[in-house]
Amino acid sequence: MKDPSGRLVLLYSREQIARRVRELAASISADYAGSDLVLIGILRGAFVFLADLIRHLTIPVIVDFIGAASYGSRTQTSGQAVITKELQVPVSGRQILLVEDIEDTGVTLQAIQHKLKELGPRSIKVCTLIDKRERRLVDVPVDYVGFEIAKGFIVGYGIDYAEQYRYLPDIYRIEGLGERGE
User: Fold this and answer.
1) Which of 113, 62, 64 is nearest to 85 (CA)?
2) Is 104 a catalytic residue?
3) Which structural domains are found in the chain, ordered by start?
4) Mean pLDDT per 10-residue run, the chain (182 residues)?
5) What is the pTM of this model?
6) List 31, 52, 64, 104, catalytic entry
């Protein structure tokens, strides 16, 4: 993709992403064979990753979405996560795998986990495409990780900046914006 501003730097190609998604799906399929698994995508960034992930799973799953926001159009978290969309599927007694685009500060994930625990699932685990462990403000466990990066504001493959760039099939770092947090 040619970026006229010269600000986008390729981090992961669509081929690298596809390979890693297949590997994650194989691990998840093996770990959850024979179980009652509910995949919950964290909107909006995770929808592309979740769609590709479920196409490579070899086990039946139920899919739902939860919405949460702590960024708006800013590049830094507000420190407060607000649930913007509730689940539609009952999760009591079921195993949950939260699927998200980026795990960064842990603020949003902690709020979602707290909300879901109130619903009585058997377990809650997390799968993230991008892990920025260095930036954690809250210690949250991440069980399946696509890629780890240290810094940079990233876009593409469903990940946005101010609702732009989600359409890009690869993942890019935007030069000059600072850190990407979730």
Assistant:
1) 64
2) yes
3) 20-150 (3.40.50.2020)
4) 69 98 98 95 93 97 90 54 89 97 91 94 97 86 94 90 92 75 38
5) 0.87
6) 104
